[in-house]
Amino acid sequence: MENVFRYYEFSDFFVDNSGAFQKNEICYSELNEEHFLIFEKKNQDTNPVYSLYVSKYNSKKEIGKNPPEILELLVEDYDKSIPEHRVVLRRYLY
Fold first, then answer.
1. Which residues are bridge partners to 74 per DSSP?
2. For residue 73, how many C-alpha atoms fall within 13 Å in the half-sphere facing its CB?
3. Average pLDDT by consecutive 10-residue portion of the chain (94 residues)?
4. pTM, two decimal places
């Protein structure tokens, strides 16, 4: 997964304090000034499980601090080896 995060220029992971992701770690990639893709990392101590969301914030400074205006789950338990999961990610970033 690290290659996916680097390739698509996701931020480093940080703890969500907005309540939207239950204090799990998240990272984001900017689609435009208000829309972002967010990966949420669960089960951090063993095998991490990632969920992919599209979200809307007033600015990227609000991510992890305030709840998003819009949050839509795109892929639960993202697996880079599943073509449909990769297609969802590419659809938003290209």
1. none
2. 9
3. 94 96 96 97 86 97 97 97 95 86
4. 0.93
* pLDDT at res. 94: 76
List strands edge to edge, sheet with 35-42: 14-15, 25-30, 35-42, 49-56, 70-75
CB-side neighbour CA atoms (13 Å) of 12: 1
CB within 8 A of 62, min separation 6: which ones? 18, 68
Q: For residue 52, give the nearest of 18, 66, 31 by alpha carbon.
A: 31
**CA atoms of 3 and 57, how far apart (whole Å):** 26
Tokens of 27: 């990272």
